[in-house]
Amino acid sequence: MRVGILGLQGDFALHQRMLTSLGVETRIVRSMEDLEDCASLVIPGGESTTMGGLLVRFGMLEALSARIREGLPVFGTCAGAILLAREIIGYPDQPRLGVLDIAIERNAYGRQKESFETDVLIPSLRDQPYRAVFIRAPIIRAVGPGVEVLAWFEDLPILVRRGHILAATFHPELTDDPYIHRYFLEQVASRLTVR
Ligand code: GLN
């Protein structure tokens, strides 16, 4: 079964490169039909307002939200995490999938720190630090019950999971460390063997 990558906008090609390097078959998803033979979906970074607007324009917002609620495993990075969130702080009308009980603030690190890389710990998953790349990143300000925080940076959650839904405020596709993608495939989307 393929892994779908939402390809309406943003850096979907880099997720495809990463997943291909893991030996996984991918499909760029631009319609609900494209999603049909996909076992899971990655929603890339980019611009969440544009991506959300395109989901509305292509009639995918409600249908995709329903598929995720029904159990489609999904991994949202940066703008993708924003689209998954229940609450986008300060933007109550911004289109979103609203499937993950977090409150997220867009572009929240301010100008000085707009884009940066740093080593973070993912204590529940592995011993070695992980190099996280942040680009105009959001901050997760609140997580609802049942949302597990897997990693923090400066005491704020940067990688969260609720069951089949995984969200990162950073860009794992911009490093050459496939760790987070592999975690998604093996632990969140499961039953996919990757090399
Ligand atoms: N700032 C972007 C937004 O609000 C997200 C940035 C990113 O995906 N790198 O959508």
Main features:
195 residues; alpha/beta; Rossmann fold; 6 helices; 12 strands; binds glutamine; PdxT/SNO; PdxT/SNO_CS; Class_I_gatase-like; glutamine amidotransferase; pyridoxal 5'-phosphate synthase (glutamine hydrolysing) activity
Give the structure's gist in a few sentences.
The protein is 25% helix and 32% strand. By secondary structure, the chain is α/β, with parallel strands linked by helices.
Could you outline the blueprint of secondary structure elements for this entry?
Layout: E1 2-6, H1 12-21, E2 26-29, H2 32-35, E3 38-43, H3 48-57, H4 61-69, E4 74-77, H5 79-84, E5 85-88, E6 100-105, E7 115-120, E8 130-135, E9 139-143, E10 148-153, E11 156-162, E12 165-168, H6 179-188
Parallel strand pairs: 1-2, 1-3, 3-4, 4-12, 5-6
Antiparallel strand pairs: 6-9, 7-8, 10-11, 11-12
Bound molecules: glutamine.
Glutamine (GLN) binds at residues 45-48, 78-79, 82, 106-107, 135-136.
Explain what the structure shows:
This protein is α/β, with parallel strands linked by helices. The chain has one domain (3-188): 3-Layer(aba) Sandwich (Rossmann fold), CATH 3.40.50.880. 25% of the residues lie in helices and 32% in strands. It has 6 helices and 12 strands. The strands form 3 sheets. A 7-stranded mixed sheet has the order 2-1-3-4-12-11-10. It is globular, with a radius of gyration of 15 Å. The model has no long low-confidence stretch (mean pLDDT 95). Glutamine binds at residues 45-48, 78-79, 82, 106-107, 135-136. Pathway: Cofactor biosynthesis; pyridoxal 5'-phosphate biosynthesis. One of its GO terms (molecular function) is glutaminase activity.
